[in-house]
């Protein structure tokens, strides 16, 4: 099959969205924005051997490729609308393509996201996804809105995806009862779209956790010119984490492991009651893990009220030695 046959066979679909005037097949997609809305756009590239194992199940990879991008829309509180996909393949493998499309389009259909274009070429396996969302004007969640006294919160539990990766690398032994849980956390992240939308009028700042809580929360402190105080005993750790590596190593994975794709956000005390109601309606568990304070931007770690020193750092593609 040539490039255009592959696109026609696997990537030309009708999502049914009426705001897609022209989808795949022309030089550009033509999309209709609603009045008084903003366009939210995010792009991520996944490279074999860096972001995923080259032999990863293609169904899981298709899901993951879209999910990690939708997580960025969730962090902004946006409604997912459209996606474009640039796929680089070393060869045409129709079984792999079928699996990838199964995972990709199942998640796209769940969130009513239309594939509107992209590109395909030959080369080392990599996947670039650009998602587009919409949100009411002046309602987007940003990183620079936190205020001193705001509580710091996260959804879900932290570090489980990193634990799943450690399991696949053979660095930890996970009890059989937890194996499927940690594997799913790594391979099938769940973007917190509904939670992000619910936080639009409640949170003062937000982002998604892709590189580890310590580094990602640092972006909020830098953008808001504040300091964060984290109470480590309040970090939400799963039973799988506690049973496998214990409390302190669990803290380390939660702080620096990455790939959680949960939301981290700050909320003023006056909105605390609203927060509990809003996220309860979404069915999303959340935990208060600290607070924002005046001071030099950065993250201060406390264990039972005392300073705690952590040697590991969050992921950075371009740090020396990584």
Strand order of the largest sheet: 8-10-7-11-9-12-13
Tell me the name of the CATH homologous superfamily of the largest domain: PurM-like C-terminal domain
Supply the helix-strand structural class: alpha+beta
Task: Please state the CA-atom Rg, rounded to the nearest Å.
Answer: 20 Å
Q: Please provide the count of β strands.
A: 13
CATH topology term of the largest domain:
Phosphoribosyl-aminoimidazole Synthetase, Chain A, domain 2
H/E element string? HEEEHEHEEEHHHEHEHEHEEE
Give the overall silhouette.
Answer: globular
Largest sheet: 7 strands, mixed
- Count of alpha/pi helices: 9
Mean pLDDT: 91
Q: In CATH terms, what is the architecture of the largest domain?
A: Alpha-Beta Complex
The CATH class designation of the largest domain is: Alpha Beta
Flag low-confidence runs.
315-322
Q: What's the structural domain tally?
A: 2
How much strand content do the residues show?
25-35%
Describe this structure in words.
Pathway: Cofactor biosynthesis; thiamine diphosphate biosynthesis; thiamine diphosphate from thiamine phosphate: step 1/1. Pfam families: AIRS, AIRS_C. One of its GO terms (biological process) is thiamine biosynthetic process. Substrate binds at residues 51, 259, 315. Mg(2+) 1 binds at residues 43-44, 119. This protein is an alpha+beta fold and 322 residues long. The chain has 2 domains: 3-136, PurM-like, N-terminal domain (60s Ribosomal Protein L30, Chain: A, 2-Layer Sandwich); 151-307, PurM-like C-terminal domain (Phosphoribosyl-aminoimidazole Synthetase, Chain A, domain 2, Alpha-Beta Complex). It is 35% helix and 25% strand. It is built from 9 helices and 13 strands. The chain has helices at 3-11, 58-76, 94-110, 160-168, 176-187, 193-198, 213-224, 239-256, 272-282, and strands spanning 20-22, 30-31, 37-47, 79-89, 114-122, 126-136, 151-155, 205-208, 227-231, 263-267, 286-293, 298-303, 306-307. The strands form 3 sheets. A 7-stranded mixed beta sheet has the order 8-10-7-11-9-12-13. A 4-stranded mixed beta sheet has the order 3-6-4-5. Strands 1-2 form a two-stranded antiparallel sheet. Helix 4 packs across helix 5 (176-187). It is globular and about 60 Å long. Residues 315-322 have low confidence and may be disordered.
């Amino acid at each position: 099959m040539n490039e255009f046959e592959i696109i026609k066979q696997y990537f030309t679909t009708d999502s049914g969205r009426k705001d897609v005037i022209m989808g795949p097949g022309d030089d550009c997609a033509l999309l209709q924005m609603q009045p008084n809305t903003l366009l939210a756009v995010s792009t991520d590239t996944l490279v074999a051997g860096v972001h995923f194992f080259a032999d990863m199940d293609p169904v899981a990879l298709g899901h993951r490729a879209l999910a990690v991008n939708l997580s960025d829309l969730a962090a902004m509180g946006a409604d997912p609308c459209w996606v474009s996909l640039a796929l680089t393949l070393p060869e045409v493998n129709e079984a792999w393509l079928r699996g990838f499309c199964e995972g990709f389009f199942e998640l796209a259909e769940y969130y009513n996201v239309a594939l509107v274009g992209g590109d395909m070429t030959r080369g080392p396996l990599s996947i670039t996804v650009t998602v587009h969302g919409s949100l009411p004007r002046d309602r987007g969640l940003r990183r620079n809105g936190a205020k001193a006294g705001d509580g710091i919160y996260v959804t879900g539990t932290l570090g489980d995806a990193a634990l799943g990766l450690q399991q696949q690398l053979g660095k930890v032994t996970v009890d059989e009862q937890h194996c499927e849980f940690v594997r799913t956390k790594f391979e099938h992240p769940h973007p917190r779209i509904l939670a992000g939308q619910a936080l639009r009028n409640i949170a003062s700042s937000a982002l998604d956790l892709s590189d580890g809580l310590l580094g990602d929360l640092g972006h909020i402190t830098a953008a808001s010119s504040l300091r964060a105080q984290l109470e480590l005993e309040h970090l939400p750790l799963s039973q799988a984490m506690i049973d496998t590596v214990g409390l302190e190593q669990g803290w380390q994975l939660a702080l620096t492991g990455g790939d959680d794709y949960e939301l981290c956000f700050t909320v003023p005390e006056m909105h605390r009651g609203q927060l509990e109601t809003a996220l309860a309606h979404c069915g999303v568990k959340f935990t208060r893990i600290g607070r924002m304070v005046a001071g030099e931007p950065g993250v201060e770690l406390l264990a039972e009220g005392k300073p705690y020193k952590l040697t590991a750092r969050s992921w950075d593609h371009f740090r020396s030695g990584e």
